[in-house]
Design a protein that fits this description.
This is Isochorismate synthase. It holds the Pfam family Chorismate_bind. It comes from Hymenobacter persicinus. InterPro entries: ADC_synthase, Chorismate_C. This protein has one domain: 4-Layer Sandwich (Anthranilate synthase). The strands form three sheets. An eight-stranded antiparallel β-sheet has the order 3-2-14-15-9-10-12-11. A seven-stranded mixed β-sheet has the order 1-7-8-16-17-6-13, sandwiched between helices. A two-stranded antiparallel sheet has the order 4-5. It is globular, with a radius of gyration of 20 Å. Helices cover 25% and strands 29% of the residues. Bound molecules: the ligand C=C(O[C@H]1C=CC=C(C(=O)O)[C@@H]1O)C(=O)O. The site of ligand ISC has 17 residues, from β6, β10 and β17.
Length: 371
Amino acid sequence: MAAARRGAAPAVPELFGRGGPDRPTPSLDARRPGRLRLFPFRDSDHNPALFLPADVFWDAEHPDQLHCSDAAQVAPLLAFLAQAPTPTDTPLPWHLSPQPLPHTATQPEYAALVETGVEAIRQGQVLKVVSSRAARRPLPAGFDALRAFESLCQRYPQAFVSLVSAPGAGTWLGASPEVLVTIDADGIFRTMALAGTQPLAPGMLPQQAIWRQKEIEEQALVSRYIVSCFKQLRLREYEETGPRTAVAGQLLHLRTDFAVNLRAVPFPTLGTDMLRLLHPTSAVGGMPRQAALNFLHQHEGYDRAYYSGFLGPVNLPQPGVARLFVNLRCLQLRSTEAVLYAGTGLTIDSDPEREWSETEMKLSTIGAILR
Ligand SMILES: C=C(O[C@H]1C=CC=C(C(=O)O)[C@@H]1O)C(=O)O
């Protein structure tokens, strides 16, 4: 799946709901025009929530159709595309974030963060916390964001591959394995509990994976949080499938899927309600949610920006349809380098060296396109 938006069109902040005097809260509203949503881990002046108008929309499932917010533009655009020269070797320009580069933790610094997290769990401040770090990598000569996007689509056909470039936010490229909230054209709401990681060894079948108690517990906490959200909304009619092993590039995760038929339950705003309860999920923040977020704010030592936020199209290709994914396995493009992001769920049994290796494995999912 792909959500790509490039070019100079300005980002239009559209405040559907408000989290404070001036802060938007995430919301799905079928009456609004089609948008690509880019929501940060923490909404702030540095990393505002963006709603990018879908002024040109193309769906790979209907390759012969092109939608334009201005219908008069469809014919000239199709004519332009028909005559457009084949791609040249000139790299395409992209928007750069005005924010300073984030601090990139060394292995000893990350080990110290993991140890602090484990101690917080031991002391009962949190049950689980997801620590993360950023890493800088040089861009190869002639790097082209659009070609990298295409290469990610081929490499990770199961992932939600995205390329978003917008003034203020910069340019983000990713291949996420994690659904936050989707609602399809048949009114089926879905979300998932994704956690626990191990490498997919050569020749190994995913169904042969054996999971340690640590990963089973880590993922069960995420599942339990989702069930608690349904309970909070007093919704009982959900289907739960799993946990089972899921493949994400060269990695395996444990995944439980949840589905609700919105046409069979009296919960017209379930998508928005769940979005607000879920983000940031316990797969990227921790549990209890607020205590884990406070821990990260105090100890993580860098600004996650749009990493572990969420993104995807809303009300596209039709009103009421939404596909929002957690922004994982992603990088931010700068002029000559990329900033890559990865995190690991900590439990009381976490080992700093293992958690560092896990972030290295996760960084190589997106890092593969820089080689
Ligand atoms: C936080 C990330 O992954 C989450 C999703 C799946 C597995 C995870 C884990 O095993 O820790 C994380 O919770 C990341 O990729 O940066």
